[in-house]
Amino acid sequence: MKYSLKAGSIALVAVAFIVACSNKPAATPAPAPTPAPVSTPTVVTVEPQVTPTPQPTPKVEDGLLGRTVAELSGNLKPAFFDYDKADIRGDARDALAANATWLKKYTSVQFTIEGHTDERGTAQYNLALGDRRANAAKDYLVSLGVDASRMKTVSYGKERPFATSHDEDSWQKNRRAHFVVTGK
Amino acid sequence: MKVEDEEKISLKGRRGEKRFRGGSGALLAAATLLFVAPVLGQAPKAPAPLSSPSTATTPSGFPQASSIDLSITSGTASRRPLAIPMTSAPLQTDLQTKAVDPFYTTLVDDLAGSGVFVVADPALYPKGMRPPQTREEGDSWKATSAQFLLDTHLAPEGTNVVVEARLWDLATLKPILEKKYTGEPRAARRIAHTLASDLVRQFTGRPGPFLTKLAFSSDRDEPRVKEIYTMDFDGDNQRRITNSRTLSLAPDWSPDGTKIVYQSYEKDTPGLWLIGKDGTGKRPIPVPTQLNASPSFSPDGRTIAFCGSVRGNTEIYTVQTDGSGLKRLTENAAIDSTPRWSPNGREIAFTSNRQGSPQIFIMDLEGANVRRVTQAGNWNDEAAFSPDGGRLAFACRNEGDFQICVMDLASGRTVQVSSGPGAHEGPTWSPDGSKIAWEVQRGSSTQIAVGNADGSGSARIVTSSGNNYSPSWVKTLE
Predict the structure, then answer these.
(1) Spatial contact of B62 and B111, defined as CB atoms under 8 Å apart
(2) Does B51 lie at the interface with A, CB-CB under 8 angstroms?
(3) What three-state secondary structure class fits B31?
(4) Neighbours of B53 (CB within 10 A)
(5) Is A136 at the interface with chain B, CB within 8 A?
(6) ipTM of the complex as predicted
(7) Residues B378, B384, B388, CA angle at the centre, nearest 5°?
(8) pTM assigned to the model
(9) Beta strands at B148-157 and B80-83: parallel, antiparallel or unpaired
(10) pLDDT tens, B238-288?
(11) What is the spatial distance between Cα B106 and Cα B181, in angstroms, rounded to a whole number?
């Protein structure tokens, strides 16, 4: 297999790569989202209309009115990872499925996926690992039907931790793909 | 303290006088205070030793190894026992605190850590007898275990200070080195570095690394921001050279010491940047890849190796400094990261987890002849070739935290050169191969340590302001 700099190969190939390079036979992420109930985005409850219409009308986008991108970022859940891994595990699949549902509802939203790691491991290697995690999350979202042109990825490695204690609880919080809404 | 008669020390200055301007302005004096402050919970008296494995310590606080493999520094003989009595000077409080004390402390620190000398205990020094005039006076000095005596004198001359130095052989009672230096008082430390370097050259044929600089990344300016800094090898003279207001990471010097390549998140996405060592001439190196981490200058200064990503797959690339000639060297679905160029320019070391855990590999510039060089441990990373190419320093880990290891590439023999608690990462060699600097994280503080490449003595923390990362030692001695 060969990567070229220009070719836009489909996301599933990249997902397959990630799985392939793991030593353990990790569970292949199912492309089809589970129809499990998704926690309701808070943005909907605040707006006057409780049941948004399914059509992509301005009314749906109204759900974004009066909201800063920072507030909107709170509607997107982080996907967490195992140590030194970029495989999409079960809880991350659920989080990404919820994100995909919200993102397909608000199709004007642009966002960045940040890849983060815990503090163990070297700074430079962790930048590569964070890049891999961000792209794994991106590929999974694309497989769920979210347009790749809406998202960017960036790796922060261990440069910008969410929790600063030196224990597994903090480390798990920091091993994540983190979503930041950049436009609406 | 005896004040020498200046007429008496009529130095021949056989290598000429050197004049010092003391760098650019008052920054130097201010920066001096920065690194002296204690860090990492050490006792409030810098320098703080990183560890204390059965070593002797001079009154200056600079620890020494009780034994040392001299082949690394000098290639011959053993360390020379040297007495360095306090620099004599006219009795002026201002002169003493601003010039004499910084000069003497720096001189002793440099020479004690040089690997070329061992400094005799000053508590044993006889009073006066400088220079030793008679056999009896010479024997008084030899009783301190010294074979050589370094006699220094500092005096004001107009707005400058003049330092005269003479190295006496206590066996023959003859001076074997005579030097005279002139500079502004604030250049006292630089004069001491120059003298120390000249003394090392006298015995090894090449200057010591005491006038060389390091670049590093620091978060001291504002939260979530890291800027590139430079400093003297002992932590003095720290200066910020970037104003990116974002993450600027992983500096590496150009071979001629005029430029620094680094990774920065300016324009929101990480890219490769070049900047002059004085902070001028900043420009990006345009590349189509993402991530763009760990830049490493080729020995001819024309090409940068770096870790680039395409859709989450990181590979090792090379690119000309103008962004042309992009070339991918690795092709592997695993993580490939952290390239470092070999001094002969024909190979690149890098980290890959292609065989499971992250390990260090070496390949040629075609990406061929890939061989794994680290076998032991569950994580080996951040390789750095010694200036002669014969050794590889890297962050090594089996259990617990990273330490710094050095491998002899011919034999594969590996020794751990750091010790003590904390995560030790990111080694870089001094241009003479005698020392290694790295970053050590203890708790929430990360600072830069400098130690001997053979692991002798204790490493010394040289930064204290904010957190400091990713040291890169300049690659030329002068």
Answers:
(1) no
(2) no
(3) helix
(4) 15
(5) yes
(6) 0.81
(7) 135
(8) 0.79
(9) parallel
(10) 999 999 999 999 999 999 999 999 999 998 899 999 999 999 999 999 999
(11) 15
